[in-house]
């Protein structure tokens, strides 16, 4: 088994830590496994510090982007392949949702996209310059769409308060110390709109935080196969509905 680690970073900007998704590709028999998230972060890719829990989880009420308009800017170190993926993801959101990612001109609040040491982003709008990193291992269309989902304000499906109605968590298969990554979010902190979505771009696969990379840690109760993020095609039907409701643009 060959294990390739990508750098893990904690980025601090103006006293606020940001979300980080770090991928660890475990190759077994030439087949790439599911993304492996940072065990030190809330829900695998959310850093929560300085009593910021309420600020983070109240995204629906406090940190959406006005009119769904998200100015962005690319740094010079973005290579051609990644630039193409970024613009494909932007087109994906702009066509399917009421969100509009637009090139930054003079806006104070904007997303700076750069090729950092992993995949990380704030959830929703922070205010001022905020970073979205897409580093090595993140140059796949569904991964870019996933990270953009955090920018818009989406969370993970497997942490929903009603997830036990849809998922079986195999606690004995989870790597020791990683059980915290499967804690459910309270209804009062995070609104669960629409039904649970097995196809969501915000739902990771069946071996997330597996103790050996092979055992399933998450399984759909109805037998649906939970595909790895890299195998997904982009926003699901219910992802689109959630974004529309988050931004009050159902019509």
TrEMBL record:
Cofactor note: Binds 1 zinc ion per subunit.
The keyword Zinc is annotated on this UniProt entry: yes
TM annotation in the entry: 16-37
A single GO BP: proteolysis
Active-site residues, record numbering mapped to chain: 147
Known EC number: 3.4.24.-
Keyword Zinc recorded: yes
Cofactor needs: Zn(2+)
Subunit organization: Monomer.
Function: Zinc metalloprotease. Provoques deadhesion of endothelial cells from cell cultures, and also degradation of fibronectin, fibrinogen and gelatin in vitro. Its role in the venom is not fully understood but it might act as a spreading factor that facilitates diffusion of other venom toxins. Alternatively, it might be involved in the proteolytic processing of other venom toxins or it might play a role in extra-oral digestion of prey.
Family: Belongs to the venom metalloproteinase (M12B) family.
Protein name per Swiss-Prot or TrEMBL: Metalloendopeptidase
Lineage start: Eukaryota, Metazoa, Ecdysozoa, Arthropoda, Chelicerata
């Amino acid at each position: 088994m060959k294990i390739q680690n990508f750098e893990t970073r904690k980025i601090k900007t103006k006293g606020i830590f940001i979300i980080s998704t770090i991928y660890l590709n475990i190759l077994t028999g030439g087949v790439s496994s599911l993304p492996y998230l940072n065990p030190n972060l809330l829900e695998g890719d959310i850093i929560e510090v300085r009593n910021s829990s309420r600020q983070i989880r109240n995204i629906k009420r406090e940190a959406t982007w006005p009119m769904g308009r998200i100015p962005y800017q690319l740094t010079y170190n973005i290579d051609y392949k990644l630039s193409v993926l970024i613009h494909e993801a932007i087109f994906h959101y702009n066509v399917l949702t009421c969100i509009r990612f637009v090139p930054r001109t003079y806006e104070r609040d904007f997303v700076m996209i750069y090729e950092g040491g992993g995949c990380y982003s704030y959830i929703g709008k922070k205010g001022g310059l905020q970073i979205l990193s897409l580093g090595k291992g993140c140059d796949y269309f569904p991964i870019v769409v996933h990270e953009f989902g955090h920018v818009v304000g989406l969370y993970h499906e497997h942490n929903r308060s009603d997830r036990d109605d849809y998922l079986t968590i195999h606690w004995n298969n989870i790597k020791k110390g990683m059980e915290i990554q499967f804690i459910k979010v309270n209804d009062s902190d995070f609104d669960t709109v629409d039904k649970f979505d097995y196809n969501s771009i915000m739902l990771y696969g069946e071996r997330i935080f597996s103790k050996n990379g092979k055992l399933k840690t998450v399984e759909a109760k109805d037998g649906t196969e939970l595909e790895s993020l890299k195998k997904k095609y982009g926003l699901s039907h219910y992802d689109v509905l959630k974004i529309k409701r988050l931004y009050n643009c159902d019509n």
